[in-house]
Amino acid sequence: MSRSRQPPLVTGISPNEGISWTKVTIRGENLGTGPADLIGLTICGHNCLLTAELMSASKIVCRVGQAKNDKGDIIVTTKSGGKGTSTVSFKLLKPEKIGILDQSAVWVDEMNYYDMRTDRNKGIPPLSLRPANPLGIEIDKGGFPQKDLEALFPGMSADFTSENFSAAWYLIENHSTTSAQAHVQERKEVIFTSEEDR
Predict the structure, then answer these.
(1) What is the pLDDT of residue 88?
(2) Fewest CB atoms within 10 A around its CB: which of 37, 53, 169, 170?
């Protein structure tokens, strides 16, 4: 007479909160006898079985997906023990949206660039990099009056480093008479000049 195993019991999850795709470690009892025994894993109602890795009968590592609920149980299902229960829950956090001027936890290191005028390398912080011509196309001021542009784009700016940058304003102000053919020809000249310098 064969005796079935006890149902899975989840007793811990670390971390117990995070955004979607957070890697978590699930601890408990009877979580599976092997990879083929683990047939279901949900966190906050989301199926996480595809990312689950059964480390032992008491430990599973997986990633939390796009959960349906903000907070919910961790349910493990096995062939040998059926659908389990959980004494702990996971809280899904909403990721913060970061704007271009918001602070973030990213370290920006200084960059080196080659200054052709002085024929040397220079180190400067990337935030001070403000190329005069970011598109690499010859700037041709089309003759649109500044007042007309300000009326067309109220509160906006053609300065690409500005929080209120308007790409349309920039293009009208600097490239309204530039053709696509002129851009292609200019690029060819740059490529040929570069090859001759080698």
Answers:
(1) 95
(2) 53
Token digits of residue 163? 């929080």
Cβ-contact 81, 70 below 8 angstroms: no
Mean of pLDDT over the chain: 75
30, 84 Cβ separation under 8 angstroms: yes
Give ∠ CA 23-24-26 in degrees, rounded to 5.
155
CB of 8 closer than 8 Å to CB of 74: no
Residue type present at position 133: N
Quickly list H helices, the chain. Answer: 146-152, 167-175, 180-197
**Positions in the chain short of pLDDT 50:** 1-3, 106-114, 123-130, 183-184, 186-188, 190-198
Pair of tokens at residue 40: 């279901």
**Is residue 67 within 8 Å of residue 17, measured between CB atoms?**
no
Contact 20, 64 (CB under 8 A): yes
The residue type found at 155 is G
